[in-house]
Amino acid sequence: MIADRTLEPRDVPLGGLRGLRVHRTLPSRPLPTIGAWCFVDHFGPTEAPMEVLPHPHTGLQTVTWPIEGSIRHRDSLGSDVVLRPRELNLMTSGAGVSHSEFSDPGPMHGIQLWVALPEHRRHGAADFEHHPALPRVSGDGWEGVVLVGRFAGQESRAAVHTPLVGVELRLEPGRHEFDLDPAFEYGVLAVDGDVTVAGEPVLHRAMRYLAPGRDALVLEVDRPTIVMLLGGEPFEEEIVMWWNFIGRSHDEIVRAREEWEAQEARYGHVEGHDGQTIPAPPMPQVRLTPRIRRA
């Protein structure tokens, strides 16, 4: 079992060397997933635009959560949605989908997450959901929004395919205690300031991983602070992640890449970009292997 630990953010350019800079905490070398959460990018606050041309996905769900600023989402299913702060976009790739994301001018801050799809849902049709209103929860000195799953007696209608939870929490200064599901493992992302998680200091943008077995969590902050709580039952299926694809083998990833480059029908077409897309990078010179947990 992986022990509790802090995952430090990595600075990554989104969409090329001159693209939007993001702070990535998941996947990390010792920990590829928290529940089925397999990717966490924290972007902003920034004035830099998000300009991501059509690109493909397989084997995953994208979860887009703006805190400030708006993002226009267009996809190969025909969706064309402007996503605003504290609204949720949830796109399920199935066997293949493509989409673009462009921010409106002005300040921008938010989180982009991926969820690995289990075997029974990673094939077949893609889907897209826009949730402008999500369940709200609150307590003494805190309030939150339930993106997915169930928390504090409220449950989101967003479709997930493994036991999972995601909650944005806004904390006033002080000590706050929350009930947890002991079957879940959790990650607490320090979104806009430092936070003490179960007695351990976690710096801004870092994430604290908590192993299964806890039925309660104490968070402490000394100023108004946003955190993201992510959790789920440990994801037992081995996954191979590369670029925008999640599969189960090297050969499956190679095929997904080749079919994107050939503009095969599995990925569809995103209107409004005059045929422009993001080309797939070259495959690495080694065979891709499943990501494993390292104690």
From TrEMBL:
It holds the Pfam family Pirin. Signal peptide: none annotated. Residues 167-263 form the Pirin C-terminal domain. Coiled coil: none annotated. Residues 21-115 form the Pirin N-terminal domain. SUPFAM superfamilies: RmlC-like cupins (SSF51182). Belongs to the pirin family. PANTHER family: PIRIN, PIRIN-RELATED. This is Pirin family protein. It comes from Aeromicrobium duanguangcaii.
